[in-house]
Amino acid sequence: MLTTVLIHAVYFYALGRAYAAGDLSLVYPVARGLGVALVPLLAFLFLDERLSRVGALGIALVVAGIAVMHAAVGVPARATRPSERTSRVAGLAWAILTGLAIAAYSVIDKAGVTRVHPLGYISLMGVGISLLLAPFVLRRRANLVREWRVNGRAIAVASTLNLTSYLLVLFAFRLSKAGYVVAARETSIVLSVLIGAVLLREGHLGPRLAGAAVVLGGVACVAFAR
Q1: pLDDT tens digits, 155-198
Q2: Structural contact between residues 110 and 42, judged by C-beta atoms closer than 8 angstroms
Q3: Helices then strands, each counted (H, E), the chain
Q4: I want to staple 90 with a disulfide (CB 3.0 to 4.6 A). Which of 5, 19, 21, 118 is the partner?
Q5: In whole angstroms, what is the distance from residue 37 CA to residue 137 CA?
C-alpha cells in the first residue's frame, strides 16, 4: 500500500506536468502506451502471468497504434520556436515518466487487490496520495483557491470519475491478467485523440484516428484472449 501510494503520487505529479507542457492527444497516448507495453513484462517477472498468442498480438497492436498516433506529428518543424520545441520535449519526458509509473502501480495493485477488497484498497490509497501531495498543492494556495472558484464543479466531477474508473480497474484485476486489463483500458486513447484533435484543435486528426483504430483492434484481440 505504501509503495502504490508513493508511485501514484509520482504519477499524478508527472501527468500534471506533462499536460502543462504537451498536447493532450500526444501526452495521453504516450503515457498509456508505455504502460501497456511494460505491464505484461513486469507481470511475467513478478506475478508469473503468461499471455496467450492472441493476447500478446493484441498488446502489440495497442503499442503499434499508439506509435502511429505519436508519429503523426513527427519532429517539430524548423519554423517552430525554440520555446515550443523545448515544451514538446518536456511534455514527452513527463509523459514517459507517467507511463513508467502506470506500469509500476498496475502490477503492484494487481497483487494488492488479491489480498485487500478493492473498495478498501482504493480508500486507503486515496487518503495516502492526498496526504503525500498536500504539501506540494498548499505551496500554491492562491492558485488553488482561484482554480477551485473557476472550475470547482469540473474538478469535483473529474475527481469522482477518476476514482470510479480506477475502482472498476481494480475489480477487473481480480478477474483477469494485468496485461489484458491495462490494454483493454486504453480504449480511452481514442477519446483523447478526438478531444485533442477536434475540441482542442491540436490537428492531425486523420493519422491519429488511424492509430486509434489499430488500438481498438488490439483491444478486441485482448477481449478474446485467454
Answers
A1: 999 999 989 999 999 999 999 888 888 877 877 777 777 777 77
A2: no
A3: 9, 0
A4: 21
A5: 31
